[in-house]
Predict the 3D structure of the following.
Amino acid sequence: MRRLFPETFDEIQIANPVRRLGAMVYDGMVILALWMVVGIIAVVINDGQAVTGPGFQTFLFVLTYGFLAYFWTRNGQTLGMAAWRLRVQTTNGESISLTQALIRFMVGLISLLPAFAGFLWAFINREKLTWHDIASGTCVVQLPKKDKKKESGKR
């Protein structure tokens, strides 16, 4: 079930492409670490021999999608996005669906191929949207800083 996020469009703005890149690098390191752990487990299971082939590559591909889709559909933020105060959501301010996450993931991969053209599109697009934002009906927003004075007053 989709969840409506609490921030209004007055409190947020479409994320800057440079901040998005920072979050992507952060998430890339987390995914690489995840792949390394899976690779070590696979080598141990395979009696110390390297694991290769399309089956293992497919498993890593599905694992990567599962990791991203879990965070995108749960609260709209991967670990890198949370660090950079970014969130992916629908253009209506709701959490995205698994279908949107799949479209976003697949078109995001296509966006990498022609020299990152799909990502660079955000620099020339008026709404700062990438190819995968447009294809999936989503957008990445910059969240406001939490006001620590307000937070401490609530306790």
